[in-house]
Amino acid sequence: MNESLPPGPSDEGNPAVAPAESSRSAIKNEAGKPGWEHSTMERLLFATLAEQRSARRWRTFVRLAWLVFLVVLLWMAIGRGGPSSADKSLPHTAVIEIKGEIAEGSDASAEFVVAAMRAAFEDTGAQALVLLINSPGGSPVQAGIINDEIKRLKAKYKKPVYAVVEESCASAAYYIAAAADKIFVDKASIVGSIGVLMDGFGFVGIMEKLGVERRLMTAGENKGFLDPFSPQTDKQRAHAQQMLDLVHKQFIDTVKAGRGKRLKETPELFSGLFWTGQQAVEMGLADQLGNLDFVAREVVKAEDLVDYTRRDNVAERLVKKFGAAMGEGAMRALKTAPALR
Prior knowledge:
Blueprint: H1 17-30, H2 36-78, E1 92-99, H3 110-122, E2 126-135, H4 140-157, E3 161-170, H5 172-177, E4 182-185, E5 190-192, H6 204-210, H7 234-259, E6 274-276, H8 277-283, E7 288-289, H9 292-300, E8 305-307, H10 314-322, H11 328-334
Parallel strand pairs: 1-2, 1-8, 2-3, 3-4, 3-5, 4-7
Antiparallel strand pairs: 5-6
């Protein structure tokens, strides 16, 4: 009785193995019979053709799978998030989220927030814009761009802007909120932190103890004064402090211009401290308690919410992850610009 040899363990799942193994088994069983050479050649030919067809089908499948994947990525890249409502002409409250760190390349970057604000103001159905904020702060430059654009768009389109604070609205986030017509908070929100910091580390003492010599060559005596492995002079420290004081003054002036007579100034107000939402209302940093639904319903008088927030979609995140953003973490660690946070 003729029996076929079982496939080897490495051949499982290969569509071309079954016909090839069957042919080899048949050839082995027919060896020695009259005309077996012709039969053998015929079977080998058919087995080879079967393997080639299977390989072609597999290559075609892989190529089609990659094509579908690329088409999906392209579709997602083109379909960057915009307004969530199909009919933007109906009266509604426009909402833009400012969440997480305010920095270039983040969802709360000036690029994304400003683009979203322009879209919201241009829609005739948007009765007002609500900035839904939950951020510990970030870049003073990004916050300043957003603050300036809020004031410009309010003057151009004559639409009110409200800030609604969730968990936190600190530092650069408050820099943005100060441009709103009114600020609404939860009684337990964290609000304030009107200050500037520049942080880093110094390893000079450790290097001296370990006997490590720092060899830093610069053109310009102060070019490397923020290098953590080099000592810092009193003159360099004073220069850095002057920069921080200047940015702090810009922050204070922006808050005073936005809040006006509502502020109840105290020595601690601009010291970098932060307060609860209830305290912020009492100090004039916020106007009253209220959440997003309350503002849309009672203040704007347009309960329908339309989200205009722009975010990185999946395709863009993949590109950043596997492309230029591979060095983003290292670059951020080297940045020495003052940060409002």
